[in-house]
Amino acid sequence: MPKTAALWKQLTTSTQLKLIAGPCVIENQGLCLNVASALQKTCAKLGLTYIFKASYDKANRTSGKSFRGPGLDEGLKILAKVGQEFDLPVLTDVHTEAQARAAAEAVDILQIPAFLCRQTDLIETAVKTGRVVNIKKGQFLSPQEMGPVLSKAQAAGGQQLMVTERGTTFGYNNLVADMRSIPFMKKFGWPVIFDATHSVQLPGGGGDKSSGQREFAPVLARCALAAGADGLFIETHPDPDKALSDGPNMIPLAEMPALLQSWLKVWDASR
To answer: Under a CB-based contact definition with an 8 Å cutoff, are residues 236 and 250 in contact?
Structure first.
C-alpha cells in the first residue's frame, strides 16, 4: 500500500505537529466536507500534518436511543469521499473484525476504541489489513498496561502503530489526564497522540448521555505537547451545542485556527 507507506513516513519522520481532527460522528456528508475543508486550509497555512476523523457508528453510546451515525456502508462512502476530494488521510474507529476489513478499503488509519483496546481478535485483524492502526488507551488501564497491548499488535504483524492517551477514570462520571503517561508510552517506540477532547468528557455525566468540559481541552492540549506528545486528537464541530454526539466536549470549529496557532507555539518551543 504505497499511500499507507507514505503516510507512515510522514507520521514518523516529519517534524510537523500532527493533528487528527473532525466531528465525533458523521451526521451528514455536508458536515464532514465542511470540517475537512476548513481544517485542511488552516493546517496547510500553519504547516501541520492533518488527518480527518469521524465515526460511522458510535457503538458505545450511553443510551440506546442516542444517535449512532449512518452505519458502516454509507459512512465509509462519505469518509472515502472526504479522502478523495481533499486528498487527505482519513481515520475511523472499528468495533468488529468484519468492520476492520471493510473500513481498510476506504480509510487510511483504523482506530481501536479505548473500550476495546484489549480485544485480541480485533487488534490482530486490524493490523493484518496493512493499514496504520491507532490504539486508544482504555480509561481503565495504566500507561504500563499498554505495553502488552502494543506487543500483541506487533506479534500479529503490526509495524505501523500509534497509541493515544484519552484520560483515565477518576471516580464516577469523571476522567483525569495524567501527563506522565505520555513520556512513559513513548518508551514503547510508537507515536503517542493525546486526545484532548475525550479527556475532558464526563462519562454518563448527563444522565442518559455523557457530558463534558470543553473549556479545559485547549489547556490539556498544551500540557500534552509540552510533555512530548507527537500529535493531538481533537473533535470539533461548527456548532457543538447542536451536535448529535459528544457536543459538550467538542471545540467550536471557528476557534480551531487560533488554538492551532497557540498549540504550534508550544510544539516549537518544546522541541
So the answer is: yes
- How many Å apart are CA 163 and CA 185, to the nearest integer? 8
Which residue type, as a one-letter code, is found at position 52?
Answer: F
Give the closest residue to 237 by CA, choosing from 31, 29, 28. Answer: 31
Collapsing DSSP to helix, strand or coil, 19 comes out as strand
Model pTM above 0.90: yes
Which residues are CB-neighbours of 158 under 8 A, at least 6 positions away?
Answer: 123, 127, 133, 150
C-alpha cell at 155: 506479534
Q: What is the dihedral of CA 54, 203, 175, 173, to 10 degrees?
A: 170
pLDDT tens column, 127-141: 999 999 999 999 999
Whether the CB-CB separation of 95 and 125 falls below 8 Å is answered with no
Look at residue 131 and give its three-state secondary structure. Answer: coil
- Summarised one tens digit per residue, pLDDT across range 65-117 is 778 899 999 999 999 999 999 999 999 999 999 999 999 999 999 999 999 99
Q: Are strands 175-176 and 168-169 parallel, antiparallel or unpaired?
A: antiparallel
Beta bridge partners of 18: 49, 231
Alpha helices (H) along the chain:
2-13, 29-46, 72-86, 97-103, 120-128, 146-155, 181-186, 217-226, 256-270
Nearest to 234 by CA among 260, 206, 268: 260
Nearest 5 degrees, angle CA 68-CA 66-CA 28? 40
If we measure between CA atoms, which residue out of 57, 106, 102 comes closest to residue 79? 106
Other C-beta atoms closer than 10 Å to the C-beta of 204 total 15
